[in-house]
Amino acid sequence: MAYAPNPGHLPFDCTIFNEEGQEAGFRSVHVRLFNGWDSKKAGASPWPAAGARPPTRWEIDRRPHPFQIKEYEVV
């Protein structure tokens, strides 16, 4: 799967739903930050899309910070 642009909130494809359609968990993602750092190229473990501590922040400031997520890829 190719990298997708960060929508500024938790992407729908990162959420796992159970048979009843309720949120059951979250997928892991590789990320590329605005500063160019890429978790996949760096050989780092995928990040949890949500539900972890510290939380993965999907918000993008008007002037993006270098450490904010630019793109993601669901693992």
Would you mind describing this structure in some detail?
This protein has 75 residues and is mostly beta strands. The chain has one domain (4-74). Helix content is 0%, strand content 31%. It has strands spanning 4-5, 15-17, 23-26, 28-33, 47-48, 69-74. The chain has a four-stranded antiparallel beta sheet, with no helix packed on it. A two-stranded antiparallel ribbon has the order 2-3. The mean pLDDT is 95.
Total domain modules: 1
Trace the largest sheet across and list its strands. 1-6-4-5
State Rg: 13 Å
Number of helices: 0
Q: What is the number of strand segments?
A: 6
The percent range for strand residues is: 25-35%
Shape: globular
User: Which H/E pattern describes the elements?
Assistant: EEEEEE
Low-confidence stretches: none
State mean pLDDT (0 to 100 scale). Answer: 95
Structural class: mainly beta
The N- and C-terminal alpha carbons lie at a distance of 8 Å
- Biggest pleated-sheet summary: 4 strands, antiparallel
Q: In percent, how helical is the residue content?
A: under 10%
